[in-house]
Amino acid sequence: MSARTGNSEALWGHLSGFFAIFGSFLVRISGSKVKNDNTDTRHNPQMRSCHTFSPVGPSPSEEACAQVGQPGYRRQALAECQRFMQLIRDTLGPEPEGAALAIKSFDHDFGVYYEVVCWFDIENQAAQAYALRCESDAPATWEA
What we know:
The protein is α+β, with helices and mostly antiparallel strands. It contains four helices and five strands.
C-alpha cells in the first residue's frame, strides 16, 4: 500500500509538509484519497513533517477484528485501532521525533476500512527504526 515509484516520490516530497486540518484531513497521493480519522494525531506537528507511512494493521495479528460491511463497522474499527495504537505505545514506547502512529482509512471494493499506520520521516533513522519495530514487533494479541 505504501510503495510509490517514479514521479510519486517527487510529488510526495513537495506535499510532505502539507496536511489540511479540517476535521478528517484529505491528501491526494497518486490519485487515491487518504483520510486520517485519528483525533490524537490530527494536530501533531511530527505527523505533518513525515514523508511516508508503514502499515501496521487494524488490530493485533492473532486477534479477530471488525469486518468491513458489518453493522457498526466504522465505530468498532476505529475503537480497535485506538486500542491497538495504545498497546503499541505501551509495548514499544512512544513514537520518537519524526514518527507518529495514526489511523488511516483506505478504499476497498467492499467499503472503507481502517488500519493503524506509522508515519515516519524517511531521513530520520530513529523514526525509520520505530516504524520497522511497529511492523515487526507490534503485539500479536491484546494481552501482550
